[in-house]
Amino acid sequence: MKILVPVKRVIDYNVKVRVKADLSGVDLANVKMALNPFCEIAIEEAVRLKEAGSATEVVVVSIGTAAVQEQLRTALALGADRALHIETDLNPDSLQVAKLLAKVVADEQPGLVILGKQAIDSDNNQTGQMLAALTGMGQGTFASKVVLADGKVQVTREIDGGLQTVELTLPAVVSTDLRLNEPRYASLPNIMKAKKKPLDVKAADSFGVNLQSNVKLLKVAAPATRQGGIKVESVAQLVDKLKHEAKVI
Amino acid sequence: MAILIIAEHNNQSLKGETRKVVQAATAIGGDITVLVAGFNCAGVAAEAAAIAGVSKVLSADNAAYEHQLAENVAALVTELGKDYSHILAAATTTGKNFLPRVAALLDVAQISDVIAIESADTFVRPIYAGNAIATVQSTDSIKVLTVRPAAFRAAETGNNAAVETIAVVQDAGVSRFISAELTKSERPELTAARVVISGGRGMQNGENFALLNGIADKLGAAIGASRAAVDAGFVPNDMQVGQTGKIVAPELYIAVGISGAIQHLAGMKDSKVIVAINKDAEAPIFQIADYGLVADLFTVLPELEQQL
């Protein structure tokens, strides 16, 4: 069985983002970029399924400018077998990404698609669900455990009140939550080997998907900053402040 | 304009988030219909009919919707949704699960986690873990939105809208519910609590979370946790507050032994008053706390419980 893992290049999660002065967006010039943390977990899960003999091949795919090849190489160094770069200068939103991925699914016929539950830049949490909808597949979102058996996959999902387990017919879409696994680091020999692994590049135009979004970004502003607080000296003073100044208890 | 809201419930009772979504919908303006999709959920439909501003409740009561599997609920909502200008659900794990599926089936974008409504087509939402606030305008024929409950107050009750039963059954047949393991708690729900007290890695182990119990009891507070505390196995993951956990905006948030990573702040920085208790005076949490106490939590917590 083949596993398809869509991955995204995003701003590194430790970077404190800055909003541009003209409110047109977030300043990404000279900022450290990385694999989206949830995508790393998706790669790790796919590689583990391959190591366990449940999968035969792990294919990673990313959409964007030539820069995303850096993240695809990282994915290859982590154990993916080959990569596909869908090249575009546009910044497609979740629906367009899902449409492109649906075409890749039609070409590659994977038994399982594993992706992150959300990208830490747009915080949308949509692409996996949309891809499942467009391909008619079942979805196991926010997965903290994935078990393959008898042409089905059992996915334990993190839900608001606790955990829920569902069983999906394959092929299916799984989106990863943080606790699914702990991603490995790429070793230097594997980083070197990854340079020789196949990486195909296709133009996004060749997929016949309209990449124009119907959602227009009007402005991006910095959030309201909180008033600087004070430090209290003792518990007594804290309780007094909460009772008489903030009046919250 | 006609607005469809999908109710959040557990087949027995309506969750408070739905009233907040109704409040958000009143800012769009138009007729509000609430869909209750579940099994043996007549009580939920009656509760939904009592929310002020709701003009009609649709009840889809069938075993296919009992566990609100995304495949079945999305097919139902897609079929009904074609007649509406807006489709809304709460940005809970349930809403986040099925609504993007609906949007894709309707071939429209979804706007996630809306925190303010500027007009019928212009919405405000946080991006980059809440470090930037985007205003977006949608020209899609149907606007599909998840609404962040913490950003809206709950609509009043006291209404008596008509409940209409719909017989549409959608069973995609690709998914099956196996089991659920729900965390039992006597305390208020994290996302609805007026006061939240959270522990982080500084709590050192799960047993020490008991130190928060007495304080939570006295304040009627819910107990939360940082990701570090969850990952270390101190507490279950549904207690996690942050970008990837729950987003809360209580009147009082007390962070105990939490350093204040960007991802945690994303889940609580809209709280009205923030208190930080940490022995590291340099911890980032102090930059956003209204009241900070630099001290060892193991001496402070018993003292605090006593003085409340």
Automatic annotation (TrEMBL), chain A:
<dbReference type="InterPro" id="IPR014730">
    <property type="entry name" value="ETF_a/b_N"/>
</dbReference>
<dbReference type="GO" id="GO:0009055">
    <property type="term" value="F:electron transfer activity"/>
</dbReference>
<protein>
    <recommendedName>
        <fullName>Electron transfer flavoprotein subunit beta</fullName>
    </recommendedName>
</protein>
<comment type="subunit">
    <text>Heterodimer of an alpha and a beta subunit.</text>
</comment>
<keyword id="KW-0813">Transport</keyword>
<dbReference type="InterPro" id="IPR014729">
    <property type="entry name" value="Rossmann-like_a/b/a_fold"/>
</dbReference>
<dbReference type="InterPro" id="IPR012255">
    <property type="entry name" value="ETF_b"/>
</dbReference>
<dbReference type="GO" id="GO:0046395">
    <property type="term" value="P:carboxylic acid catabolic process"/>
</dbReference>
<dbReference type="InterPro" id="IPR000049">
    <property type="entry name" value="ET-Flavoprotein_bsu_CS"/>
</dbReference>
<comment type="function">
    <text>The electron transfer flavoprotein serves as a specific electron acceptor for other dehydrogenases. It transfers the electrons to the main respiratory chain via ETF-ubiquinone oxidoreductase (ETF dehydrogenase).</text>
</comment>
<comment type="similarity">
    <text>Belongs to the ETF beta-subunit/FixA family.</text>
</comment>
<keyword id="KW-0249">Electron transport</keyword>
<dbReference type="Pfam" id="PF01012">
    <property type="entry name" value="ETF"/>
</dbReference>
<dbReference type="InterPro" id="IPR033948">
    <property type="entry name" value="ETF_beta_N"/>
</dbReference>
<feature type="domain" description="Electron transfer flavoprotein alpha/beta-subunit N-terminal">
    <location>
        <begin position="23"/>
        <end position="211"/>
    </location>
</feature>
From TrEMBL, chain B:
<feature type="binding site">
    <location>
        <begin position="257"/>
        <end position="264"/>
    </location>
    <ligand>
        <name>FAD</name>
    </ligand>
</feature>
<feature type="binding site">
    <location>
        <begin position="240"/>
        <end position="244"/>
    </location>
    <ligand>
        <name>FAD</name>
    </ligand>
</feature>
<feature type="binding site">
    <location>
        <begin position="226"/>
        <end position="227"/>
    </location>
    <ligand>
        <name>FAD</name>
    </ligand>
</feature>
<dbReference type="InterPro" id="IPR033947">
    <property type="entry name" value="ETF_alpha_N"/>
</dbReference>
<feature type="domain" description="Electron transfer flavoprotein alpha/beta-subunit N-terminal">
    <location>
        <begin position="3"/>
        <end position="181"/>
    </location>
</feature>
<feature type="binding site">
    <location>
        <position position="278"/>
    </location>
    <ligand>
        <name>FAD</name>
    </ligand>
</feature>
<dbReference type="InterPro" id="IPR014730">
    <property type="entry name" value="ETF_a/b_N"/>
</dbReference>
<comment type="similarity">
    <text>Belongs to the ETF alpha-subunit/FixB family.</text>
</comment>
<dbReference type="InterPro" id="IPR018206">
    <property type="entry name" value="ETF_asu_C_CS"/>
</dbReference>
<comment type="subunit">
    <text>Heterodimer of an alpha and a beta subunit.</text>
</comment>
<keyword id="KW-0274">FAD</keyword>
<dbReference type="InterPro" id="IPR014731">
    <property type="entry name" value="ETF_asu_C"/>
</dbReference>
<keyword id="KW-0285">Flavoprotein</keyword>
<dbReference type="GO" id="GO:0050660">
    <property type="term" value="F:flavin adenine dinucleotide binding"/>
</dbReference>
<dbReference type="GO" id="GO:0033539">
    <property type="term" value="P:fatty acid beta-oxidation using acyl-CoA dehydrogenase"/>
</dbReference>
<keyword id="KW-0813">Transport</keyword>
<dbReference type="InterPro" id="IPR001308">
    <property type="entry name" value="ETF_a/FixB"/>
</dbReference>
<dbReference type="InterPro" id="IPR014729">
    <property type="entry name" value="Rossmann-like_a/b/a_fold"/>
</dbReference>
<protein>
    <recommendedName>
        <fullName>Electron transfer flavoprotein subunit alpha</fullName>
    </recommendedName>
</protein>
<dbReference type="GO" id="GO:0009055">
    <property type="term" value="F:electron transfer activity"/>
</dbReference>
<comment type="function">
    <text>The electron transfer flavoprotein serves as a specific electron acceptor for other dehydrogenases. It transfers the electrons to the main respiratory chain via ETF-ubiquinone oxidoreductase (ETF dehydrogenase).</text>
</comment>
<keyword id="KW-0249">Electron transport</keyword>
